[in-house]
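In this supplementary section we document a worked example of the pipeline. Step one takes a protein sequence of length 172 as its only input; no multiple sequence alignment statistics are reported here. Step two produces a three-dimensional model, which step three serialises into structure tokens for compact storage. The input and output of this example are shown verbatim.
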Amino acid sequence: MTSTLHEAARLAGAPHEAAAPGQRVARPRRVPPRLRRLCVELAKFGVVGGSGVAVNFLVFNLLLHGLGSAPMAATVLASVVAMGTNYLGFRFFAYRDRARRTRRQIVLFFAFSGIGVAMETLLFYAAYHGAGMNGPLGANVAKAQSIVLASAFRFLVYRTWVFQHRAQTRSA
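The serialised model returned by step three reads:
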């Protein structure tokens, strides 16, 4: 009898403790496949985006503090360099399972990325000049805030229009 309970619990995916007669064995809940895919996509977007943020900050600080560039020029140039590295990461890592690279995809990526750079720049300008976040720490906090806000926009447009699933691109 005990071996039958162990076997039933094992098949149900429960821990190996046997349930007492009349007790229900708790089954672990499964994550719906769609939610699991979204979580994986968010994680990959985060990896690529995180590396892009690192590139963005590195170039920004090098230009602003190392080479003495103007703050607005430093933020725009850093964002553009990160945009290029992000395209490679998204194309070959995060969204490699999506439709093949096309001229339309490249144009959309850089058009939406350009909008993202504009958003970042405006947000950075407001924080740097408007809120007085113009010291070395303040400039980096302003840059971080602008990146976070623009990244939400980027995630939505990249997954919706730029790196579409294969079935969506055939019908379009």
